[in-house]
Amino acid sequence: MEDIANLFHGFAVVVQPFNLVLMVVGIVLGVIVGVLPGLGGANGVAILLPLTFSMSPTSAIIMLSCIYWGALFGGAITSILFNIPGEPWSVATTFDGYPMAQNGRAGEALTAAFTSSFVGALFAVIIITLVAPLVANFALRFGPPEIFAVYFLAFCSFVGLSKEPPFKTVASMMLGFGLGAVGLDQMTGQLRLTFGFEQMLNGFDFLIAVIGLFGIGEILLTMEEGLSFRGKPAALNMKVVLQTWAKLPRYWLLYLRSCLIGCWMGISPAGATPASFMSYGIAKRISKNGHLFGTGQIEGVVAPETAAHAAGTSALLPMIALGVPGSPTAAVLLGGLLIWGLQPGPLLFVEQKDFVWGLIASMYMGNIVGLLVVLTCVPLFASILRIPFSVIAPVIMVFCAIGAYTVHNNTFDVVMMVVFGVLGYFMKKTNYPMAPMVLAIVLGDKAEESFRQSLLSSQGGLGVFFSNGLVSTIMSLGLIALFWPLIQAGWTRLRSGKLRPAE
Amino acid sequence: MNQTVKETGGTGPSHRSVEVGMAAFMALLALIGIFGSIKVGIGWGDEGPRAGFFPFYVSLVVLISCAINIFSALASGDKGRVFAEWGQLRQVLSVLVPTIVYVALVPYIGIYVASALLIAFFMRLFGGYSWTVTAAVAIAVPVLTFLMFESWFLVPLPKGPVESMLGF
Known about the structure:
The structure holds two protein chains of two kinds.
Chain A: H1 2-14, H2 17-35, H3 41-48, H4 57-82, H5 91-102, H6 106-139, H7 144-161, H8 166-181, E1 183-184, E2 191-192, H9 206-225, H10 238-247, H11 252-267, H12 272-286, H13 299-314, H14 316-322, H15 328-339, H16 348-351, H17 353-384, H18 389-408, H19 411-429, H20 435-457, H21 469-482, H22 484-502
Antiparallel strand pairs in A: 1-2
Chain B: E1 3-5, E2 11-13, H1 15-40, E3 44-45, E4 48-49, H2 53-75, H3 86-127, H4 131-152, H5 161-165
Antiparallel strand pairs in B: 1-2, 3-4
Helix pairs in contact in B: 1-2, 3-4
């Protein structure tokens, strides 16, 4: 009950006129970021983070999280109208969204996509409201071994659940930990891995890595592919919206399933992209129109969009409750919390009640505002994509550079951004996932600290990670996630082996 | 780099050589990490694990993963796959090189003037815009940025001689 009261208090904070304005500004910026190639949710938030340094943390998080919602909405616009996924998680939306637009049903597809996004996000926010306080309360009891075990679980899930080859995931993740370790050692105060370079004293900031990997790298990729935009006209009138809304309730089961898939994938750090594919795949298998998927089925838009938004939103749950971000964008938001002097993790619910409940309330409001903004402004956003790439590309570059500079007011960071950009281009081309690297740079210090503190208490014995029921459970879950592909393959073989004689 | 021919006729570096190069590069970083960790001590000190303890093992895992990745790249059958055609790579370089120049210029002439030059360069070279349109966009974007950052959000950005001449 106390939580409900807190939530309403949060709403009171959010509906202050200044915060409402920030919300709309955030959504609009977010949609633009989501529509433009080379600017995704993660580096959009990273670039705009410095703008919020002078705001109160609550206002800042409202604006930044709204950029995130906007980016999630924006990805759908380009997928449907241009067959260009603005974000990786909207790739699955192109499968049926673009054919719908080709058949002259762009309005229907867009309405379905936005509404599904909204439903998915709303479901996830309700889950966060109900579950996050419980998780945080539970996690207050965690000592260093348990905290390390949570990190272990998060990173193992990356290896087990990602589509990329496992050793590539491991390599880029561990490289991220290595980059995060450069500079001052938090525990002994000793300098390490700097090799006498003054610029390395502060280590590698993950914001620079995000802007480089996701921003510059993406532009280089776009340039290689030689983008040409040929969009379908976008007109959304109230009639189409209402007609589509009248159609959607009959897919309630599809919605529920996609929401559950999304939340599950979002909370484990697999993220929105696999969630959208998984939801699309399952919908295709179960639906009686499954064989028509790919030709412009509305269900083929509903399933991935719902799951992607549910995943993108629920990725914030572990960030708020445990301090472990579920996605690169959540990681950037977490970085923001640190800059504003807030320590993410379970204590946030105790010490920064206003902030946490303001954030949760802003998730409800942000998605409602977002739905209204995107439904009314689609033609405007679509016209942004008609600006030629030769104008947009340098402008994006300039904003990336500004974003990188303002992190520490340091021009060397801008150089590092370009280095990360080239690295990102090659990583993307050779299938090394970038999200685990970014998360490892963010969480490296904390993971290392909890690891070393645990070892300290056990005098170096690794048994401390299996010393009680709680920590052993989390560690075992981590190991299961790590070896999930092997377990799955073994299980299938076992079953097919058993079934065959019966046939 | 060995050249191979794709079915479409375009040539370029083979995907496999880039794949191996990438893993080798990461392995190099890992070796640097291992070296640096040993320098600060990877053992058990007075206050528990020394500073190099964690980065050492992390780098070791990177090294092992890279070895596996190199092996699987060499073992994979897609020998004829091209990483990117030379023409495409030239496109990438035509963006990358101006960006490097831009970044190198920022400390000396400030971010605003450098940005104007970058935008103008892109629009002339890739967009083929007339000088008037180019100048309009190339000047408008930095000016708007200036207003947004310096006046509105009070975030100072690097400035050069032109700005100091104008009295900022």
